[in-house]
Specification:
The chain is of the alpha/beta class. It is built from 10 helices and 9 strands. It has a single domain, classed as Rossmann fold. The chain has helices spanning 5-28, 68-88, 110-118, 130-154, 162-168, 170-174, 209-214, 222-228, 259-273, 287-299; strands at residues 44-50, 96-103, 121-124, 180-186, 199-200, 203-204, 232-233, 244-250, 278-283. Strand 8, helix 9 and strand 9 form a beta-alpha-beta unit. Helix 2 (68-88) runs parallel beside helix 10. The protein is globular.
Length: 302
Amino acid sequence: MKINIKFILLIVITSFLGSCKNQEKDEKEETIETPKTKDVSDNLNISLLLDLSDRISPTKYPNLTMEFYLRDVGYINSVSDAFTEHIRTKKVVRANDKIQLFFDPAPFNPEINKISKDLKIEINKNNISKELINKTKTIYATDPLKIYDLAIKDQHYIGSDTWKFFKDKVNDYCIEDNYRNILVILTDGYIYFENSKIKEANLTTYLTPELIRVNKLNSSDWSQKLTNQQLGFIKANNDLSNLEILVLGINPNPKNPYEEDVIKAYWTNWFESMKVKRYEIRNADLPSNINKVIKDFILKSK
């Protein structure tokens, strides 16, 4: 039987080229730093909302253990670590993740706004690299501290318009289709902004220590009063079922032993009324203690 050498050679070459093509495809689907057995396909859209009110003032609210603004910086660093850790577990072709930082209202200092613009980062299959991931970690480890330093130096603590952010901006700024949308709020739990101060019956757009005292929520029957008087925040949004929220930094007035419970009840009832998909509300603590809370919330979706 006569053997067709050219035919056999053609088969060998075709098989070799097909193998190379498959290998190239596999390499493109490899993750940045982890084995390809780890397949995380969800896309993260993480937003941070900073409260730059006087709560961050080391003069008005000093803390010998660790200043509150430095705790914020530590929390932000942990969020960034979780974000980049998530990206490293994804296949390159599936990279499509975002992280950004907001204030409301915007600070007067234009330098602060410029820094926040630099902190808006998107990592996708077209630009992903170890260099960009490392740059994201670096910029989130250094630039937030610059923001707090500038805000403290300016001494323009104009308050926190968190309620209006939920009413007018959260849908456009923090929620996108085909993403796990996560909003991390850094706040002491109190909300106040003069231009958005509204009261409807016993519902308000603000929460202050004074309001808690006026409503006499400083005794063991605080929960009953909250229910009977229908106290709480005015609903600011009808449907946040595609948003997960992590609130960090709750810092109740120590003079009222029930203040923490009242603050958390206000936020909990508010989130429930707006149909928030998932949320956690945590007290101010050292960043080393909160680090696991942050990473579990971001990396272990439910």
